[in-house]
Amino acid sequence: MSIILKTTNLCKSFSRQTVVNNISLNIEKNSVYGLLGPNGAGKSTTLKMITGILKPTSGSIEFDGHAWRRKDLNDIGTLIETPPLYENLTALENLKVRTELLGLPDKRCHEALDIVGLTNTGKKRAGQFSLGMKQRLGIAIAILNNPRLLILDEPTNGLDPIGIEELRELIRSFPSKGITVILSSHILTEVQQIADHIGIISEGVLGYEGVLHAEENLEKLFMDIVKKNRKLPVYFK
């Protein structure tokens, strides 16, 4: 097994509250890893530490066999929360702004648009796109630099069934292109159809990590882990 990303006892605290508590992830190369958990479980905070947005309180992160360093962001693409779009620009213009900033050739714009299926949007401005198209454009921006690791935080939120299916097919295509995907979600049915491996976070604790089997009762596994780690109010103890 070849690991592209590894975290060891990763912790993050804000004031006196520990949001991420000793999380150790092992992300296999050229796979889709589903990071599951209820809202507020610590998924986004974990991803923000991996991408350098937040600094860990303690613990370590390794990328491709070495200690994480800021220049590793050249090999990591991210879409966390809403896509960072200029709504008055077309899809192509949005990408050209980024290639100018990153010093990438213009052909990467067309390659990225082709991968996400947005080559025929012409002069339509991003502000007129459907939510699904905006998500795909956000992913196009995230893969402009040919990343080896792509991090997607709740990418299907708010999408209709057609948008979800299109995005699902797109995400499943990435490992064959040499792109490992970490997909965070609380929608179990989506992860069941996309992921090769899963990690389940509840109350900031990684309660489970392993291969996702087709016959797995993911809902039962998820609920068992969440209930095990749930902190009850004092009057229930």
TrEMBL record:
EC number(s) recorded for this UniProt protein: 3.6.3.-
Keywords linked to the UniProt accession: ATP-binding, Hydrolase, Nucleotide-binding, Transport
ABC transporter domain mapped to chain residues: 5-228
Keyword Hydrolase recorded: yes
Major enzyme class: hydrolase
Signal peptide feature range: none
TM annotation in the entry: none
GO molecular function annotation: ATP binding; ATP hydrolysis activity
Source superkingdom: Bacteria
PANTHER family to which the protein is assigned, alphabetical: ABC TRANSPORTER, ATP-BINDING PROTEIN (PTHR43335:SF8)
Record family assignment: Belongs to the ABC transporter superfamily.
Name this protein carries in UniProt: Putative ABC transporter ATP-binding protein YxlF
Annotated source species: Blautia luti
